[in-house]
């Protein structure tokens, strides 16, 4: 046990390599709290049928499970595959802010005016010409 603690301390990073983003030794604990708060905010502010809620709930629940099941930040970073653990904290904080904005905007409601014809055609796959 003592040897593994020494190895863990020796392997801790001293910098994120990102200007303005310091190493956060409490990032895992913060992530657990932030992910739980995100799920609660979604449940209380966004309708269940909203695609935004469904997407964010699925991603957040997955990430929460990864963080709860792993104590090593490098393992968390590898399994989540969305940046360093400090970046995940920033992303989670930003998502909580966005939930409030989405609730304010009510983005799940129908448009006040119908979209013009062919509005979304640029999303279709371009036909290949030979």
Task: Explain the overall architecture.
This protein is an all-alpha fold and 130 residues long. It has a domain at 21-106. 59% of the residues lie in helices and 0% in strands. The protein contains 5 helices and no strands. The chain has helices at 2-11, 27-45, 51-69, 73-80, 85-105. The mean pLDDT is 86.
Provide a compact summary of the structure.
The protein has 130 residues and is mostly helical. It is 59% helix and 0% strand. The chain has helices spanning 2-11, 27-45, 51-69, 73-80, 85-105.
Shape from CA axes? elongated
Helix content: 55-70%
From N to C, what is the helix and strand string?
Answer: HHHHH
The radius of gyration over CA amounts to: 20 Å
Number of strands: 0
Structural class: mainly alpha
Q: How does the major sheet shape up? A: none
User: What does the average pLDDT come to?
Assistant: 86
Query: What is the CA–CA distance across the termini?
Result: 66 Å
Number of helices: 5
Q: In percent terms, what proportion of residues is strand?
A: under 5%
Low-confidence stretches: none
InterPro entries: NDUFA5
Membrane topology: Peripheral membrane protein
Main location: mitochondrion
Organism: Coemansia guatemalensis
List the topology elements:
Blueprint: H1 2-11, H2 27-45, H3 51-69, H4 73-80, H5 85-105
Subcellular location: Mitochondrion inner membrane
InterPro entries: NDUFA5
Membrane topology: Peripheral membrane protein
């Amino acid at each position: 046990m003592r040897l593994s603690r020494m190895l863990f301390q020796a392997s801790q990073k001293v910098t994120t390599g990102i200007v303005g983003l310091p190493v956060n030794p409490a990032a895992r604990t913060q992530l657990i709290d932030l992910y739980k708060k995100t799920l609660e905010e979604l449940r209380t502010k966004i309708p269940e049928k909203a695609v935004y809620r469904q997407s964010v709930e699925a991603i957040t629940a997955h990430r929460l499970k990864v963080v709860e099941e792993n104590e090593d930040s490098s393992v968390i970073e590898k399994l989540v595959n969305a940046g360093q653990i400090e970046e995940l904290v920033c992303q989670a904080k930003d998502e909580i802010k966005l939930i409030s904005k989405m609730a304010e905007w009510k983005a799940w409601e129908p448009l006040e005016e119908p979209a013009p014809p062919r509005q979304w055609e640029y999303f279709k796959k371009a036909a290949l010409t030979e």
